[in-house]
Design brief:
The chain is built from six helices and seven strands, in the order βαβαβαβαβαβαβ. It has about 240 residues and is an alpha/beta fold.
């Protein structure tokens, strides 16, 4: 198995939820980790909490904005001097029927879930070229293959992300770049609604730490092999 120790990783949306769990797990594996969040305050709090785990760096950035993505990656260059792993995790969902969705809500889905993954991947690939390779993991969703009512914007963004992931893999596999997609179902995070506002037991849902475990396994697969896509589901969903 490949070692993650000493690698430099970026985790977008790493201040909470799945991204936070991934960042913490990579730190425990010995990687240096950079995270971003939209506010400096939330980013600083997350960095302070994770400092005991290893080399962690945070930078506030709205990654739907190309210029802010460039500044974030430049900040990581200054802090760590390179990049080996990109985890495109940041995402959100606006759930409306098509006839009820505003253009602004549509763009919120596409901008963060799809466009931002391109902006960050584009920056990462330029750095991988200098280091002789790298690894990109896109956190997608089962909504990227299973449409549902009220999910048009989110479905479109995740279907698009899956297609983008596969095409990028084909584009850059001979550049020693591996590209994978993790597609979880229902995960117990604030994305699915604040736990305090959710009714009933949520223990049946996938834990963020479970997604982080799978990301780590995919990164540690021997370099001769690439895991293209992983689908994750709760073992025993509600009936």
């Amino acid at each position: 198995m490949e070692s993650i120790t000493g690698k430099i990783a970026i985790v977008t949306g790493g201040t909470r939820g799945i991204g936070r769990a991934i960042a913490e797990r990579l730190l425990r594996e010995g990687a240096a980790v950079a995270i971003c969040g939209r506010s400096q305050d939330s980013t600083n709090r997350a960095v302070a909490a994770m400092k005991p785990l290893g080399r962690i760096f945070g930078h506030a950035a709205d990654i739907t904005q190309v210029e802010q993505v460039a500044r974030f990656f430049e900040a990581v260059d200054g802090e760590f001097g390179g990049l080996d792993i990109l985890i495109n995790n940041a995402g959100e969902g606006v759930f409306r029927k098509v006839g009820e969705m505003t253009p602004e809500e549509w763009r919120r889905n596409i901008d963060l879930n799809l466009n931002a993954a391109f902006y960050c991947s584009h920056e990462a690939l330029a750095r991988f070229a200098k280091r002789g390779g790298g690894f990109i993991v896109n956190i997608s969703s089962l909504a990227g293959k299973n449409a549902f009512s009220g999910g048009a914007g989110y479905n479109a963004s995740k279907f698009g992300l899956n297609g983008f992931t596969e095409a990028m893999m084909l584009d850059h596999r001979h550049d020693n770049v591996r590209v994978s997609s993790i597609m979880p179902g229902s995960v117990d995070t604030e994305f699915g609604g604040d736990a305090a506002k959710r009714s009933g037991d949520t223990s049946w849902m996938i834990a963020p730490e479970d997604v982080a475990e799978v990301v780590t396994l995919v990164l540690r697969v021997p370099a001769r092999t690439m895991v293209s896509r992983v689908e994750m589901r709760p073992s025993r969903p509600r009936k």
